[in-house]
């Protein structure tokens, strides 16, 4: 049994197909370097044409946004530093084009892998992918053995590039297992989008599996079993069957809308961490985005995202969701979420420290950039801006003041600002207790139980030793939630919940009876919550 990263949910049972992608490249010296450079130019053009076609085709299978990955491939093919490095190798070392490509790609890959940055580490596979494509064209071999899969199999590989994953035939590739790769690698993102179960980062799986071995791949737990017993196969077949039945059964709730006995619509929305999750949210019938954790746009990189980068991301989500509401939470960094490039002082109690809106009020430059991007995007959909970690009225008023300033600045610049709502997370007990006062200043509340529970019960949400005390149904928590809902309703404001408690099916009924207006959960939980609500009402 091997353990790796559970990168895409589901169970696959089938024969291993080992994909070896190392293209063997022979190096030899050449006299006519000009001829090699011409061959190289031709191959690069042909590679570009291939990538454009893959990009267009994959837009239909993996969605426009994920297909943009191939835009990055085109950029590499147009990168002068990369291409000149290959040409210089041909000229200086008088070697054949294939070999020069291999040497330069190896150098670039090494540079990326040595970087102390997950994003660049994961880009190494993009460069390798492009290198193999050029070499295959130069040596007139058909590219990518993965596209040649003819039978149902579980693909086992050292690493899978984005284009290989996107070219996978979902009917034949039952699952994927790789030595390398992380949860945020493009291969993982695409596997999740295509719903191909995947276990990545297994270390040495390719050394331990032989072509044709029987495998069980458990994408829920991140486990691979090689040549399992009949008993194990039966156990996993029954899990697989159950998951399939459950999924099919749940689909009938996709378009169902829940209305309570008073005629009030109860919405089930999605929590997302990035733009690529919007399509999955829609697929599972999200009635809106109840929480977009914008801090993920700031992570896995070396510098702050620019106003334009953020604007593009927010605009994309708003446009994709159409008329449906999109709650974008402003930067919630600090606590356990760090930005290595923001040199923040070491704190004894980071969860009680300079995090979220406190940090934004201290670093107005960062805050204003995000608010500008949000307001510029507001004309593209139904935007709701939400401030995290509000503890008192002053903080809320200060955040709103800055928002107003930004809006005035934009208007003075002649930039259009659309309609939008403003709300706050209720995740600190003090905010819950004065929710009657705060309700007058906002359009909505969203209860963040993940933090509300830890702060109310003094239980670190990440500490195993006290996890037995982390109890969503503690009477103190229930009273706070009820108080928040009542106070908001008294002011005619609505209340959602985006903490994990919203996805706890044992609490669905209690929350409904308290008058909760919206449940926001991870996309795969949407239909389960809706089914539960339907069975109650
Ligand atoms: C939704 C919440 O925010 P996060 O989990 O990102 O802290 C919460 O605290 O409940
Ligand atoms: Mg929180």
UniProtKB/TrEMBL annotation:
Gene3D superfamilies referenced in this protein's UniProt entry, alphabetically: Phosphoenolpyruvate-binding domains (3.20.20.60), Phosphohistidine domain (3.50.30.10), PtsI, HPr-binding domain (1.10.274.10)
Function: General (non sugar-specific) component of the phosphoenolpyruvate-dependent sugar phosphotransferase system (sugar PTS). This major carbohydrate active-transport system catalyzes the phosphorylation of incoming sugar substrates concomitantly with their translocation across the cell membrane. Enzyme I transfers the phosphoryl group from phosphoenolpyruvate (PEP) to the phosphoryl carrier protein (HPr).
Domain PEP-utilising enzyme C-terminal as annotated: residue spans: 249-535
GO molecular function, one term: phosphoenolpyruvate-protein phosphotransferase activity
Primary location: cytoplasm
Lineage: superkingdom: Bacteria
Catalytic activity: L-histidyl-[protein] + phosphoenolpyruvate = N(pros)-phospho-L-histidyl-[protein] + pyruvate
Keywords tagged on the record: Coiled coil, Cytoplasm, Kinase, Magnesium, Metal-binding, Phosphotransferase system, Pyruvate, Sugar transport, Transferase, Transport
Enzyme Commission number(s): 2.7.3.9
Binding site for phosphoenolpyruvate: 293, 329, 450-451, 461
Cellular component, GO annotation: cytoplasm
Swiss-Prot/TrEMBL cofactor(s): Mg(2+)
Residues the record lists as binding Mg(2+): 427, 451
Upper classification of the organism: Bacteria, Bacillati, Bacillota, Clostridia, Eubacteriales
Species for this entry: Caloramator mitchellensis
Active site location: 186, 498
Protein name: Phosphoenolpyruvate-protein phosphotransferase
PANTHER family found in the cross-reference section: PHOSPHOENOLPYRUVATE-PROTEIN PHOSPHOTRANSFERASE (PTHR46244)
InterPro entries (alphabetical): PEP-util_enz_mobile_dom (IPR008279), PEP-utilizing_PTS_enzyme (IPR050499), PEP_util_AS (IPR018274), PEP_util_C (IPR000121), PEP_util_CS (IPR023151), Phosphohistidine_dom_sf (IPR036637), PTS_EI (IPR024692), PTS_EI-like (IPR006318)
